[in-house]
Amino acid sequence: MTQKLTKKSDAYSFGVVMLELITAKQPIEKGKYVVREVRTMMDKKDDEHYGLRELMDRSIRSSGHVLGFGKYLELALQCVEDSATDRPTMSEVQKVLLDIPYADTLPKKDASVGDSDVFDYSGGYTISAEVEPK
């Protein structure tokens, strides 16, 4: 808002990226700002999806209960606080991320099956498989 970069500016940007990962939406899409959309729809009483079921990336939504999702979402929202004094530093963000349990959130795959689709892209962008030289 001030057009001045600070240590807390990185936290804000990172929080936006975290919300992009949760929603598979661009920061501003169809005139809607992802931060405002999440804040508007969020309901802390909903233990599983926090009121964001319809806004969430379909791969996250369909995976059932995601261990640590609430802490991840809370961290993302702390990072996008309007006031820089209310945001964590990136070193604080790192500490919180390391404490969020994540190992059990990925589906277990049989190693003999071949390529895993755990990290298949589910967002709205189209990605070309061809790399063209400049």
From TrEMBL:
It comes from the Eukaryota. Keywords: ATP-binding, Nucleotide-binding. It comes from Hibiscus sabdariffa (roselle). It holds the Pfam family PK_Tyr_Ser-Thr. Residues 1-103 form the Protein kinase domain. This is Protein kinase domain-containing protein. Gene3D superfamilies: Transferase(Phosphotransferase) domain 1 (1.10.510.10). The lineage of its organism: Eukaryota, Viridiplantae, Streptophyta, Embryophyta, Tracheophyta.
